[in-house]
Write a structure and sequence with these properties.
The complex is a heterodimer of chains A (286) and B (209). With 286 residues, chain A is mainly α. Chain A contains 11 helices and no strands. Chain B is of the alpha/beta class and 209 residues long. The chains are: A mainly alpha (286), B alpha/beta (209). At the A-B interface, helix 8 and helix 9 of A face strand 6 of B.
């Protein structure tokens, strides 16, 4: 009760209700993420530029994230790395979410046999330790970007697929679906007009919440050496390289890239939570 | 047209007792039949089977001697008891009505549907207002039999009278057969020409709890 009052009071102070505030925060979060992504694209070879006259500089005003043992600017490398991570995360989670939605709907709308088969497949993918499966698939598809994207895309769909399946099953048994059928609507029409609009919010939220997983797994795979090639300044590569110099006291090599990666993950997570509040049918009209 | 149910048996699974046993029922064009009985004798189950919502475990439902077509617009339309669960909560009322074909303004005005309601979501309408939409939707162009499953129980008397007046005039005009499920004997006597008591035609052995 106190909390609600507090929310109301803070909303009134700025003259917005909760919905408008959530939209503004979401746009702000999205802006930061897109900003980092675009900044990364414009940083070309600067991130790779070697300059031995400035090697091993501690974080300072000129080099906020310091420089490494080859004199490369860590701020530029970190932003470039985050940009690559965001790109990989976007593609992998988009593919994964589309896959999850199609498979989830197929399980719910198809025959009993199809449902059991898909349930078995989901259990199988979920049963194998995630990172192990990722390494296997990334390795089998050839290392580098393709292997990485395939690996992340085909291992992350399971949770969302289950959610979509449950959602479709629940909708499918509603009385208005039966009425729709008796009014002569085909399964395809019902899928398009009744079911998909209902699943769409789950899809969008699931997509955004897949991001953090995809990014973290991309980094861990690259860190372990199964992901992106070493000449790419990906966060995983930066962290892996910095391991050798940590004992030499160059803590900033791991600290700043690591903390920004965590921040990006938290940003995505917050964005997903905000979208959930906006799109969820139970809180959408608050 | 003629709608008949021959020796219908129904139960949900092979482990549960029969809800309907050897029930036969028939209704002709333009006929008005009331279905009464205390709760638990399978009124709703029977009308769901008649409208093709459930398949009978045994027995058959025939429309002009042919089984109900699972595809296409069914000439037998059911108006369920709860209007809230009969409309998609994410649709505006305009789309709900259009699902049954073109909007007809004379139907809307006869049912007392205000034009501005079309722009609202189901949760923004009351039960009585929603039920008007469900009646209008069920009376689409191809309807030959209308089954009303306690559609007016939760409504105030004025709304009840309004809805029933419209249904009866439409049924008369188009020769639609009416099956009226109700607990209200006064309504059944007023509306129906023939009254069927499920206690007489449903041969389940033990008394339902």
């Amino acid at each position: 009760m106190d909390k609600q009052l507090a929310i109301k009071a803070s909303g009134q102070r700025f003259g917005f209700n909760r919905r408008v505030r959530t939209v503004i925060i979401s746009i702000f979060l999205l802006g930061i993420i897109i900003g980092i992504f675009i900044a990364g694209i414009f940083i070309g070879d600067d991130a790779m530029a070697v300059d031995f006259t400035r090697k091993g500089i501690r974080p300072s005003w000129e080099y906020p994230f310091g420089t490494d043992w080859l004199g490369r600017n860590m701020l530029l490398r970190t932003v470039k790395g985050l940009s690559i991570s965001i790109m990989v995360g976007t593609v992998a989670s988009a593919v994964s979410a589309v896959l999850a939605t199609i498979i989830g709907i197929a399980a719910a709308m198809g025959s009993k046999w199809m449902d059991s088969a898909i349930g078995w497949l989901i259990d199988l993918v979920m049963g194998v330790p995630h990172l192990l499966l990722l390494i296997l698939i990334a390795f089998a598809c050839g290392r580098g970007l393709t292997g990485l994207l395939t690996g992340i895309a085909v291992t992350h769909w399971t949770g969302l697929a289950r959610l979509v399946r449950a959602e479709v099953l629940q909708i499918r048994s509603q009385q208005y679906i039966t009425i729709s059928r008796r009014l002569g609507k085909s399964t395809g029409w019902i899928l398009l007009h009744h079911i998909l609009p209902h699943v769409l919010p789950q899809f969008v939220v699931g997509l955004v919440l897949l991001f953090p997983h995809a990014i973290l797994h991309e980094s861990s795979l690259s860190f372990l050496g199964y992901g992106l090639p070493p000449e790419q300044p990906a966060i995983g590569i930066i962290l892996a390289e910095s391991m050798k110099y940590l004992t030499g006291g160059m803590w900033w090599l791991a600290f700043f890239p690591g903390i920004t990666l965590v921040l990006i993950v938290i940003l995505f997570d917050k964005l997903g939570e905000n979208l959930k509040t906006l799109l969820d049918p139970y809180s959408a009209h608050e | 047209m003629h709608l008949e149910a021959n020796n219908i048996y129904f139960r949900y699974t092979s482990k549960t007792p029969f809800i309907l046993k050897k029930v036969s029922f028939s209704i002709g064009e333009g006929e008005r039949v009331g279905v009464v009985s205390p709760s638990g004798y399978g009124k709703t189950t029977l009308v769901k089977i008649l409208a093709g919502y459930e398949k009978p475990t045994k027995g058959e439902v025939l429309l002009d001697g042919k089984p109900l077509d699972p595809k296409g617009i069914l000439p037998v339309q059911l108006i369920p008891q709860h209007p809230e669960s009969s409309v998609n909560p994410r649709w505006k009322m305009q789309k709900v009505l259009e699902e049954a074909g073109q909007l007809r303004s004379e139907v809307m005005s006869a049912m007392g549907i205000e034009p501005e309601w079309l722009d609202r979501y189901p949760r923004e309408l009351s039960g009585g207002e929603l039920q008007r939409f469900c009646v209008a939707r069920a009376l689409c162009a191809d309807t030959r039999f209308l089954i009303a499953d306690e559609i007016s129980t939760m409504l105030d008397v004025i709304t009840q009278a309004q809805i029933w007046r419209y249904i009866l005039s439409e049924a008369d005009r188009r020769g639609i057969g009416l099956v009226v499920v109700t607990h209200n004997p006064a309504l059944a006597e007023r509306v129906c020409a023939r009254i069927v008591d499920l206690r007489d035609i449903n041969h389940i052995e033990q008394e339902p709890k």
